Amino acid sequence: MLGLFGRSKQKKKDNRLLRAIYDDDQDQVHSLLADGADPNARRDDGQTALMRAVSEGDCDIVQALIKAGAEPNAQSETGETALMLAIQPAFDASISGAEVGEHEREEAETIGDSAAMDRTVLEAGRLLLDAGASPDIKDREGSTALIRATFEGRLDFVHLLLQAGADPLVESEQAATPLLGACAGGDAAMVQALLEAGTGPNAGNKIGLTPLMLAANRGHIEVTQLLLDTGADPNARDQEGRTALELAEAQEQAEVVALLKGSDSPE
Predict the structure, then answer these.
(1) What is the distance between the alpha carbons of residues 180 and 204, in angstroms, rounded to a whole number?
(2) With contact defined as beta carbons under 8 Å apart, do 157 and 87 qualify?
(3) Rounded mean pLDDT of the chain?
(4) How sure is the predictor about 14, in pLDDT bands with cuts at 50, 70 and 90?
(5) Rounded distance, CA 13 to CA 28, Å?
(6) Which residues pair with 42 in a beta bridge?
């Protein structure tokens, strides 16, 4: 009976910790941890206190939890880690206002808030990596933090993760790779970083899609040129037999089509 009471008391304490993190109540978090709250407490969906703190963008609480023994590589029911959640966007920049002036003002404030949040979660990412977080853990769909960072357009996180030794050649169950993510977003600087990290310009996925095909299909002229300059094969074909040129033509990407016709692509 005493054991059951003790577990119930601990559960209440842990729930208060999770609530304090949600409320961004740093003093309460420090007090509860000092009083024995579990730094690895979980919500019903498996999300840990550390994941919650990272999602809230509070580096002070992140540090406090790590110091108290929070496991940086814990995974939720979907396989997500705190590091993955740091990369997830915290704000939706698409705002609709009743009046143009109001919309522009709110949008500017939101963009500013989003930029500040980006800097905060990047610092949280550094704290997690310093605490031993692995950049190569996969979620339930086989995606890593690096794959997520490329598809979310987070060049800052891409640099951070590559410096931490993240595998640039990983591929998810959905055939996503870091380089394909960078090409999808048309981020030439990100593509360059991945190429310098050892990813080949012809590194396609399991369905035969190459970086050049994706960049061409999306109309990203700068990335297409970069890939060609670094040795991408314009004559490669996907599983359906299509080349980068044909994929660009299908989407009426005139600039890219002209560029590819000036390369070694077949007419």
Answers:
(1) 8
(2) yes
(3) 88
(4) very high
(5) 11
(6) 48
Q: What are phi and psi of 105, to 5 degrees?
A: -65, -45
Radius of gyration of the chain (CA): 22
Query: Per residue, what are the HEC states of the chain?
Result: CHHHHHHHHHHHHHHHHHHHHHCCCHHHHHHHHHCCCCCCCECCCCCEHHHHHHHHCCHHHHHHHHHCCCCCCCCCCCCCCHHHHHHCCCCCCCCCCCCHHHHHHHHHHHHHHHHHHHHHHHHHHHHHHHCCCCCCCCCCCCCCHHHHHHHCCCHHHHHHHHHCCCCCCCCCCCCCCHHHHHHHHCCHHHHHHHHHCCCCCCCCCCCCCCHHHHHHHHCCHHHHHHHHHCCCCCCCCCCCCCCHHHHHHHCCCHHHHHHHHCCCCCC
Distances in Å between the alpha carbon of 116 and those of 119, 120, 130, 257?
Answer: 5, 6, 21, 39
Q: pLDDT grade, residue 56 (50/70/90)?
A: confident
80-131 per-position pLDDT tens digit: 999 999 998 432 222 222 233 333 334 434 444 677 778 889 999 999 999 9
260 confidence band (pLDDT: 50, 70, 90): very high
Q: Cα–Cα distances in Å, from 225 out to 26, 186, 218, 262, 266? A: 49, 11, 13, 11, 17
pLDDT at 140 over 60: yes
Average the pLDDT over 4-8 and give the result. 67
